[in-house]
User: Which sequence fits this backbone?
């Protein structure tokens, strides 16, 4: 505790009191005239009865020109007058007081003084309004600050409105584009699968993005009275270029199928077409594909498959087994001039179902890491659990599986299943529909 | 849409008396009339309301498109007349509302039998020989005053004021609430009020009309009162010993007396 700095002692006290008394002698009159704010008293009709020197100084007016000659609104700008008449005066009459109203006063040299005004109505002993007492504060800096805030708010609102407009436009564009993509994507696939006598077929196409054309494709069509061709594949890449190639691949394979009954020949023809594109268009895209020929024979069918770099097909047997139809050595279509395409043959007995799929299914992510793909093994197990099944049931089960991947499925996926119907509907094992 | 609730319509006074509709102008709300209502209520049925967007009206019914023209405000008046099934009522409009009354008469002549125009002006902005008293820059200044003063309005309090017409005390407690308006709405009302030109509409008025002007009024100066009087042959002009644009507040007795005098003359003749 340092007592030395505290005011104490009788002698010091006398000195402080003297200074204090001198301060008090700053008369009320002096305080009124030279206060750091404007004072104004007006009659109820607005006529100025009293005004202090501070306000006169701010406005550059002589007392004689104001008192008894001007009314309060006369001191305001035109906008201020309008506001006074429509808001200020009615409110003051109704509530008897007003605080902190922003107005602008006119100065004698034509300038403007932003002010904050507070007014109180003084009533006489009978309760009748007698006069209005008003204080006026210079609000130049405050107003500049508020105007800055208003300006920024205006800018922010404008920016927000523009962003909103841009967002709506982008939404509309995106919706239009998605529609175009859907239409184009549909054009790359058959509307419906044809009826194959004695056989059942089902297909499904999962579009990963409505804003990106995928490159997966499938088809099923008759070659002649006895045979049907089908194929399913995946063009490398995405987008419009992949889509145009998909279209060429589809019609190329359809044409090739008519010229040779050998599945591998169709892929060889396609390989040649794609390689020609490399030189003519500089497009080095390639594809993987399974091409099959189906020969129905009563309640069963012979199937020959050629594969070019495509994942193995699945066959769900009527006995409840699922086989992978490997086609070893099949090369990507459209990479090498002398590509070899392996052929494999199988028979579909009643109750057997052949399933073709693209790698969107097996490469779907099932966890957060890059290496957590669903994989061929899991698919094989899934098929085994569902065997025996029909093409429609199996396609439904796989579509459900695909939906279950959610965001993990970021590629388009095509499914095509062909089967020989069982003599009686296949027996489902309990719980077999639930994907693991 | 319940019009009576939307426009915060209040009916008071003598239930079987002739009906007088009191319409507030730009700025505040139906409270503007409270000093003259007691005198009128003794012999007349008095209808008060707030335009949509003002006072304790339902501002969710407000749209910039409708209330950017005085015809939109006139539709409020006509819809209220319909809702109350008024016939040959006396419409008392303050300031811009007196012009709204002219438009409402044109829209529904069977509803309104006489007009009282309190401090009217058919056009505020000067135009060639016509002296309205203001330039468009003056109106811009007013708009900036509106931006600078929210008068107790805040987006947080507005639902309390607007949403509880059955509990007026909620609004009464709020300082300045009589003139509190959403600034976006007030700006539209101000522009519509001060930038409209309805001089040509006055000549269509054929019904008995009382024009009340203040001896001193910055907003509707006496030249404008004379202009309105000259444009409406069936009008009578009374100059009140009052100062300011709101004689119903600054000189309520004189205003009420002049209105009552006019109302009595209507009863005598018809």
Assistant:
């Amino acid at each position: 505790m340092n007592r030395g700095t505290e005011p104490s002692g009788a002698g010091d006290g006398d000195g402080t009191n003297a200074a204090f008394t001198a301060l008090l002698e700053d008369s009320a009159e002096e305080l009124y005239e030279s206060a750091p704010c404007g004072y104004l008293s007006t009659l109820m009709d607005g006529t100025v009865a009293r005004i202090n020197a501070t306000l006169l100084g701010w406005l550059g007016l002589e007392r004689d020109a104001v008192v008894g000659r001007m009314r309060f609104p006369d001191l305001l700008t035109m906008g201020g007058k309008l506001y006074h008449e429509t808001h200020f005066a009615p409110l003051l009459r109704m509530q008897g007081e007003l605080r902190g109203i922003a107005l602008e006063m006119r100065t004698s040299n034509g300038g403007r003084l932003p002010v904050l005004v507070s007014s109180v109505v003084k009533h006489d002993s009978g309760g009748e309004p007698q006069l209005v007492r008003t204080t006026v504060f210079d609000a130049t800096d405050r107003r500049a600050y508020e105007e800055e805030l208003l300006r920024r708010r205006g800018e922010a609102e404008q920016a927000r409105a523009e962003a909103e407009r841009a967002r709506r436009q982008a939404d509309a564009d995106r919706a239009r584009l998605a529609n175009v993509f859907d239409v184009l994507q549909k054009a790359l696939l058959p509307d419906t699968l044809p009826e194959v006598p004695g056989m059942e077929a089902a297909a499904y196409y999962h579009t990963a993005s409505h804003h990106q054309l995928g490159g997966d494709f499938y088809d099923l069509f008759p070659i002649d009275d006895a045979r049907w061709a089908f194929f399913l594949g995946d063009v490398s890449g995405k987008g419009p270029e992949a889509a145009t190639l998909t279209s060429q691949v589809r019609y190329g394979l359809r044409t090739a199928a008519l010229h040779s009954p050998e599945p591998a020949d169709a892929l060889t023809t396609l390989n040649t077409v794609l390689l020609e594109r490399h030189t003519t268009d500089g497009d080095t895209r390639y594809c993987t594909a399974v091409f099959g020929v189906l020969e129905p024979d009563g309640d069963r069918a012979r199937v020959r498959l050629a594969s070019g770099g495509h994942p193995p097909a699945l066959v769900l047997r009527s006995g409840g087994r699922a086989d992978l139809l490997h086609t070893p050595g099949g090369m990507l279509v459209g990479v090498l001039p002398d590509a070899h395409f392996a052929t494999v043959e199988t028979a579909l007995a009643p109750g057997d179902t052949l399933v073709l799929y693209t790698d969107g299914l097996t490469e779907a992510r099932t966890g957060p890491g890059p290496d957590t793909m669903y994989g061929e093994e899991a698919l094989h197990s899934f098929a085994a659990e569902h065997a025996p099944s029909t093409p429609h049931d199996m396609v439904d089960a796989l579509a459900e599986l695909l939906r279950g991947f959610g965001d993990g499925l970021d590629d388009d996926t095509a499914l095509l299943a062909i089967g020989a119907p069982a003599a009686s509907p296949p027996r489902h094992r309990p719980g077999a529909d639930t994907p693991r | 849409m319940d019009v009576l609730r939307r426009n915060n319509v209040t009916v008071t006074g003598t239930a079987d008396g002739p009906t007088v509709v009191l319409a507030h102008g730009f700025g505040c709300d139906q409270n503007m009339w409270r000093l003259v209502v007691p005198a009128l209520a003794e012999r007349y049925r008095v209808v008060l309301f707030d335009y949509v967007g003002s006072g304790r009206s339902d501002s969710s019914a407000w749209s910039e498109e409708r209330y950017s023209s005085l015809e939109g405000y006139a539709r409020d008046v006509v819809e209220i007349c319909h809702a109350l099934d008024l016939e040959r009522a006396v419409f008392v409009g303050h300031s811009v509302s007196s012009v709204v009354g002219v438009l409402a008469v044109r829209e529904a002549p069977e509803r309104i039998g006489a007009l009282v125009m309190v401090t009217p002006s058919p056009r505020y902005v000067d135009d060639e020989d016509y002296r309205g008293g203001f330039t468009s820059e003056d109106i811009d200044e007013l708009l900036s005053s509106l931006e600078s003063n929210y008068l107790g309005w805040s987006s947080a309090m507005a639902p309390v004021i607007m949403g509880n017409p059955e509990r007026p005390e909620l609004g009464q407690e709020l300082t300045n609430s009589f003139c509190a308006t959403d600034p976006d709405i007030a700006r539209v009302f101000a522009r519509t009020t001060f930038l409209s030109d309805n001089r040509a509409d006055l000549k269509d008025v054929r019904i008995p009309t009382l024009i009340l002007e203040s001896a001193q009024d910055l907003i509707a100066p006496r030249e404008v009162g004379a202009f309105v009087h000259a444009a409406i042959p069936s009008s009578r002009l009374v100059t009140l010993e009052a100062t300011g644009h709101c004689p119903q507040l600054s000189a309520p007795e004189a205003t009420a007396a002049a209105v009552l005098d006019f109302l009595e003359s209507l009863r005598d003749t018809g």
Q: What stands out?
A: Chain B is about 40% helix and 15% strand. Residues 157-165, 169-173 of chain B have pLDDT under 50 and may be disordered.
